[in-house]
């Protein structure tokens, strides 16, 4: 095979296309909201922007019920799609079962929480009398957003597993541009945070429906030809429930800092901290496409230890290179870029203090995700359990005192501590597995 043929085959490979689509989608999903933040802060003011941050936080906390199952389903869909003779039919049946289950659960939870919006608003947030009347509406929008967003994870999982990443990212990127763009226009026309949230919820519903159409398009049977039953769901339930519990602990560990900030500090500080968190997690998203693209490949490798360790070694090297490059860029231009972006030196300085610590935590989190992706692809949960349990316990013990002593910086430092634990566990697993493989080969 000539060098030209090798290059052409690489260019045509699905992995390359998926990586490109995932990175393009991640860039749009990270940059569009970040570009809108200074505009929204100027139009709404710090306190009403804090309510937008609160809506996002509440949805994230409610979505904790789902994150573990959605990750497990990528593995289950991929396993059926690639490794079984009737895998396509079983994947369609799995999609139909979880689809009905998720829509039902979302509606039940939404209907159960909506009557308590005023009570939640009263006990959760510290706001001025001027913004107080908007808080119950913000809680209601958060609940509705959760209802229309939860089922989308089923369709995303199916598209990721069958490696239709290009279409998935086209839909998601179009949706985020529409949500933020129309939302900003609504605020400009009405001056109300409710206008922004209305468009955000409406476009989110359309995004979920578009993902549903796309996922069913690739199934071997039409949706109406698949009866709703829970047989395939029951097959995956043990692993899905296990992953849900584990990931709920993990998400709680990474989100509980914002919860404590929202309870212990004024809502304006939640807005500042949410900007720092948004930037940090935006940087973290740079590595997500890599893990998303590698997951189906690791599932197909299964128990081949030689190929698996080689893939993990290459993934770890790539992640460390990305961390080094991004860290260097932030050290050189981070302060100036933050001031230019926000257009407010005082606000930029307030954001920079926790952001620096959060980025250290993000760097450590990417190393942990190497091990995490490997364990999920194998269906192994023991390492994840111990890491998440230890991290959550330490976070709950440390956060209140850290916030009381150092404010927003204390909240960010807690994020660093838990990711030190995660990164160390991933490296210990890799070194141990590598030694075991070498011993068995000699």
Structure in words:
α15 (305-342) runs antiparallel to α16 (345-378). The protein has one domain (14-441). The chain has 442 residues and is an all-alpha fold. The chain is 88% helix and 0% strand. The chain has 18 helices and no strands.
List keywords for this structure.
disordered N terminus, mainly alpha, 442 residues, globular
Which helices and strands, and how do they pair?
Layout: H1 3-12, H2 14-44, H3 46-62, H4 64-83, H5 87-113, H6 117-124, H7 129-132, H8 135-149, H9 152-161, H10 165-190, H11 193-217, H12 231-264, H13 267-284, H14 288-301, H15 305-342, H16 345-378, H17 382-406, H18 408-441
Helix pairs in contact: 2-3, 2-10, 2-13, 2-14, 3-8, 3-12, 3-13, 4-5, 4-9, 4-12, 4-14, 5-8, 6-8, 8-11, 9-11, 10-11, 12-17, 12-18, 13-16, 14-15, 14-16, 15-16, 15-18, 16-18, 17-18
Task: Report a brief summary of the structure.
This protein is 88% helix and 0% strand. The chain is an all-alpha fold and 442 residues long.
The largest β sheet comes out as: none
**What is the structural class?**
mainly alpha
Mean pLDDT reading: 84
Spatial extent as radius of gyration:
22 Å
Please tally the β strands and state the result.
Answer: 0
Quaternary state of the chains: single chain
SSE string: HHHHHHHHHHHHHHHHHH
- Terminal CA distance reads 33 Å
Domain tally = 1
Strand content: under 5%
Gross geometry: globular
Helix percentage range? over 70%
In the predicted model, the low-confidence regions spanning at least 5 consecutive residues are: 1-12
Task: Count the DSSP helices.
Answer: 18
């Amino acid at each position: 095979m000539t060098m030209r043929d090798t290059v052409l085959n690489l260019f045509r490979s699905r992995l390359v296309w998926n990586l490109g689509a995932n990175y393009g989608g991640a860039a749009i999903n990270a940059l569009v909201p970040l570009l809108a933040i200074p505009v929204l802060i100027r139009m709404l003011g710090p306190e009403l922007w804090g309510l937008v941050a609160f809506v996002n936080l509440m949805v994230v906390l409610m979505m904790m019920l789902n994150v573990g199952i959605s990750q497990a389903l990528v593995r289950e869909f991929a396993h059926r799609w690639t490794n079984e003779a009737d895998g396509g039919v079983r994947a369609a049946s799995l999609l139909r079962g979880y689809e009905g289950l998720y829509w039902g659960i979302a509606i039940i939870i939404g209907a159960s929480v909506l009557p308590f919006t005023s009570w939640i608003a009263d006990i959760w947030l510290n706001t001025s009398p001027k913004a107080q009347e908007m808080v119950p509406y913000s809680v209601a929008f958060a609940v509705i957003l959760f209802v229309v967003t939860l089922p989308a994870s089923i369709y995303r999982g199916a598209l990721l597993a069958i490696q239709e990443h290009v279409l998935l990212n086209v839909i998601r990127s179009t949706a985020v541009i529409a949500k933020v763009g129309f939302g900003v226009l609504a605020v400009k026309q009405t001056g109300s945070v409710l206008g922004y949230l209305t468009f955000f919820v409406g476009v989110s519903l359309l995004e979920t429906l578009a993902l549903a159409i796309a996922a069913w398009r690739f199934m071997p049977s039409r949706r109406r030809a698949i009866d709703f039953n829970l047989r395939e769901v029951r097959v995956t339930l043990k692993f899905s429930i296990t992953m849900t519990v584990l990931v709920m602990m993990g998400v709680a560990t990474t989100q509980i800092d914002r919860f404590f900030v929202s309870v212990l500090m004024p809502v304006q500080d939640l807005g500042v901290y949410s900007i720092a968190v948004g930037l940090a997690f935006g940087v973290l998203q740079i590595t997500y496409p890599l893990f998303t693209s590698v997951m189906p490949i690791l599932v197909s490798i299964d128990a081949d230890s030689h190929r698996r360790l080689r893939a993990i070694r290459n993934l770890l090297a790539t992640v460390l290179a990305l961390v080094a490059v991004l860290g260097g860029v932030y050290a050189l231009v981070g302060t100036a870029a933050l001031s230019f972006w926000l257009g407010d030196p005082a606000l930029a300085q307030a954001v920079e203090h926790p952001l620096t610590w959060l980025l250290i935590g993000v760097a450590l989190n990417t190393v942990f995700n190497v091990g995490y992706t490997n364990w999920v692809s194998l269906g192994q949960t023991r390492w994840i359990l111990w890491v998440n349990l230890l991290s959550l316990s330490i976070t709950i013990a440390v956060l209140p005192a850290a916030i009381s002593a150092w404010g927003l910086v204390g909240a960010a430092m807690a994020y660093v501590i838990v990711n030190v634990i995660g990164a160390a566990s991933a490296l210990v697993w890799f070194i141990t597995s590598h030694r075991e493989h070498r011993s068995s080969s000699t």
